[in-house]
Amino acid sequence: MTVLRASNLSAGYGAAPAIESVDLSVEAGDYVGIVGPNGSGKTTLLRALLGLLPARSGDIALWGTPLSDFRDWRRVGYLPQSAQLPFRRFPADVREVVASGRLAHLRFPKRLGPADRAAIDRALGLLELGPLARRMIGELSGGQFQRVCLARALAAEPELLILDEPTSALDPAFREQFYALLARLNREGKTTLLLVTHDSATVGAYASRLLYLDQKVVFDGTFDDFCHSERMTAYFGPAAQHLLCGRHVHPLPEGAP
Amino acid sequence: MSLFLDALQMGFMQRALLAGTFIAIGCACLGVFMVLRRQAMIGDGLAHFTFAAVGLGLFLGAAPLAVAAPLVVAASLLILRLPEKTALLGDAAIGMVSALGLAGGILLASLGHGFNIDLFSYLFGDILAVSRAEAILAVAASLGIAGLVALNYHDLFSLTFDPAQARISGVRSERLTRLMAILVALVVVLGVRVVGTLLISGLLVFPAATALQIARRFRSALWIAALVAAASVVLGIGLAFLFDLPAGAAIILLNALFFAATLLRPRR
To answer: In this complex, do B167 and A52 lie within 8 Å of one another by their Cβ atoms?
Structure first.
């Protein structure tokens, strides 16, 4: 089943589009890693797919419903790139922020029920935030706050989880743990994942598909294919490809700088 | 004190307390959102615009607040739209609307020589001159704000904390934001009778700022802000009556005192 489809999608902020004529199809159960250099349009693509940035052209559909008509947002979880620390005195604790991830599940008069509270507890537990649950949100470190935002996205128990550089503020140990958690959600919970990262080698080890974006989709396939594609070698040069593929690919080619 | 208790029997004092308390509570609740969304100065901008709108009402010989209400609502919506249309930051839009309002008010004051005294009375407010209709409007506006906040609590929390997250949670962000802008405009217009255009932004900012020094939860911030606002109005009117002080100034100075008191608490 196709969870998300974008065709001929163009979007951007200024005069020049940040992404142009992007075609993308994500099937249920996919784990898609999106990589690309700075300014390649990764965040723009995610924001356009979610309707946070109006598309200049093209069509987007979620579960077959055009984005403009889509209302079933409880099926979608999102972690934005700029999960900036809030105002230090923002009057909310960790649990209250994670609970806001359940908003799309609530129906009038929008009160949290036992199922919501259980989902919030699970999300707090998955991100090891239990001991911080009553800590004020403005008292957290950057890494702790990123974990709270991840927990908020997980509290929604979404079928499609869209993450924009989710590990940028996490320490290396927790980063590995987090990728393992995502893999488990994908494998056992059948959560479809769309993840933007600069960490191509790590996501490549987990993702079922890698999409290399540079305003357009340059590559869409498995990480193995990406690392062994002659077309990609020609595109990046052997040294750059080696860096992108990390330990996954053969040793650095002879004579490479 | 018995003088004040006697005064409570009088209609003007009852209307002053009723209108003042309800307007202050409405301002305080909206103020929490405005301060957290870094739009605290919107009250100042709209108050300045109200000055021009009231001037226009007086110039035309119409009821000043009836003329001001739709114009200030339009200005509030303009402050929302300008950043979207021009990529300006929100505070620039507030500054522009504020200056436009003051310039318009000054121009009208110079054109209409006969109503300067009336116009300048709106600068400082006159809570003891609140009419029955204004008191009823103040109560209705405040109850409307309380209802909006109670029914949309989770939506408003999300919208304030993370607007992008709110949108993908299905919150009708634009509609809710516009509604808030309209309510802010209405409480500002009604509030100029209580403390005047020069001080109305104090009712939006001070109780919210005080509450944010104390509250650890979003809901308690709203309750504390409302409580501080109500206390400042009741005590402010009492002090103004007993010591023959301007009520608006007394209310805002009490708010400043409450805020200062929170700074004396030991820091966590």
So the answer is: yes
Residues of chain A neighbouring B33 (CB-CB closer than 8 A): none
**Which residue is associated with the tokens 């704000």?**
B145
Both tokens of A65, joined, read 């419903």
Strand-pairing partners, residue A195, are A33, A163
Find where tokens 């949670």 sit: B169
Q: Cβ A100–B162 below 8 Å, yes or no?
A: yes
For residue B56, the domain's CATH number is 1.10.3470.10
Chain B residues touching A73 at Cβ < 8 A = 168-170
CB contact under 8 A, A92 and B170: no
Task: Using alpha carbons only, give the angle A122, A124, A129 rounded to the nearest 5 degrees.
Answer: 150
pLDDT in tens, chain B (268 residues): 677 788 888 888 999 999 999 999 999 999 999 999 988 889 889 998 998 898 888 888 888 889 999 999 999 999 988 887 777 777 888 889 889 888 988 888 788 766 666 777 888 888 888 889 989 999 999 999 999 999 999 999 999 999 988 999 999 999 999 999 999 999 999 988 778 888 899 999 999 999 999 999 999 999 999 999 999 999 999 999 899 999 989 999 999 999 999 999 876 5
Q: Which of B148, B168, B174, B262 to mutate to test the interface with A (most CBs of A within 10 A)?
A: B168
ipTM comes to 0.84
Helix axes B116-124, B90-111, angle to 10 degrees: 150
What residue of B is the nearest CA neighbor of A156? B169
**Domains in chain B: how many in total?**
1
A71: number of Cβ within 10 Å: 9
- Give the closest residue to A67 by CA, choosing from A34, A97, A101, A24: A24
Q: How many Å apart are CA B109 and CA B226, to the nearest integer?
A: 35
In chain B, residues with a C-beta closer than 8 Å to the C-beta of A89 are 212-213
Contact at 8 Å (CB) between A222 and A32? no
The pairing of strands A209-214 and A216-221 is antiparallel
Return the CATH number of A2-93+159-221, one of 2.40.30.20, 3.40.50.1100, 3.40.50.1820, 3.40.50.300: 3.40.50.300
Query: Where exactly are the structural domains of chain A?
Result: 2-93+159-221
